[in-house]
Amino acid sequence: MPLPPLTIYRHDRRKRALITLAGAIDLDTVPLVRASLERCLRDGIRTIDVDLTLVTFCDCSGLNAFLHASQRITAAGGTLRLHHPPRTLVVMLDVAGCEFLLLGVPFGQLSPPPGYTPVTTAPVPPHRSVPPVPPVPPVAVLSGGAV
Known about the structure:
The chain is of the alpha/beta class. It has three helices and four strands; from the N terminus they run ββαβαβα.
């Protein structure tokens, strides 16, 4: 008997839920993810943590599901945070500018990919004010078109 492509575990603690996903998130399984997050909202859960440690694959349909759920949960006064996403999802979040979904990552400060070395550039010289240009004396125009 083959394993299901996605398994969802939910653990509630008062108004908080931890959802652990295991398997692949794609067009076939994303309805399960959406339903699980939507059920949390219907049950009054306003803080949702999603553990993605065991996710083997996540495509843009998964990203879309998380963004849609985040909007709905935020509108209800709650938060959605993703924990331990697979590298492909981290790259998608970075490209889409959605790092705010990641737990512990301030907006705009995604960690660089493995093996990344920053390029060092020459320091920018301090700003120096430019002295004003002395005024140019006016040019006299003589009659007859001669200057």
